[in-house]
Amino acid sequence: MIQEHPVGSASFRRNHLGTGKRHTSCLRCASLQTEVMKQNPAIWTQMTLTRAILPANSTAEAIQAIRKILLVDHVTLHMLNNPTTGLDNPFVRTTYPEGWVSRYLLNNMAVTDPVLQRAQQGDTPFFWSELILNADQIRTMEEFGRAGLGTVGYSLVHIDPHGRKSVLSISRVESRGWDEHIEAHVDSLEQAHMDLHVKALAEAAADAMGIPHLAPREYECLRFTAQGKTYSEIAIILNLSEHTVRSYLKLARVKLNCVSLAQAVAKAVRYKMI
């Protein structure tokens, strides 16, 4: 029987949201993208974000995707430290330049960052233009501006059922049309934040356990090895040379501090990396 899922309905989301596949029994699939974009651009944006975030190899890769999809200058996800919830150290991923991040950390600018201070005090989203700044916070925002990073922003705060809090901030230099841009994408941002929160928690836990981060290709080669694929089979699947596959697997083995590939696979499985 041919099915039809109205755009935005529960059945539509169940069959389409977050998947890169067509639901072949759905009458709308032939023109799905065009219809969604016309009827509800917000849902289309949410679908696009979900497709980018969930399969991303890291939180850093995911926020780069958000930056590109939402056409903003910068994106930052900050997991706030709270020893009572198991987050002893802050976890931050950002698209800001490394030089600026180093300067921010070395000068302990977090204590005068009005965005972070506001987020720590509440749980509601806010435009940066709403912030009431003291003298130190004004200087901090001026430094952002002088660095060319932009002070036009919007931040969301998410607290999960275990009390773990994260802040997702997006920003740009140009202020024109900013409020309208956020209003058009606020639902997509909220869903993206929840997806990022889960991904960041997994990475933060890995950091706490001392689990090394593998590069995407190293991870893929190790995952296929765990599935019983040979070097040549992995090379064909990933369109790489067999020599390159061996190199990636060697790097993965070294990073996992293992003497054999079998040991590396076992360790990766134990740490739930693959």
From TrEMBL:
Q: Does the keyword Glycosyltransferase apply?
A: no
**Keyword Transcription assigned:** yes
Can you cite a GO biological process for this protein?
A: regulation of DNA-templated transcription
Q: Which residues form the HTH luxR-type domain?
A: 207-272
| GO MF terms, alphabetically ordered | DNA binding
- Judging by the UniProt lineage, the source's domain of life is Bacteria
PROSITE patterns in UniProt = HTH_LUXR_2
Sorted UniProt keywords: DNA-binding, Transcription, Transcription regulation
* A Pfam family hit: GerE
Q: Would you indicate the residue range of the signal peptide?
A: none
What is the designated name of this protein? LuxR family transcriptional regulator
Natural source organism: Paracoccus onubensis
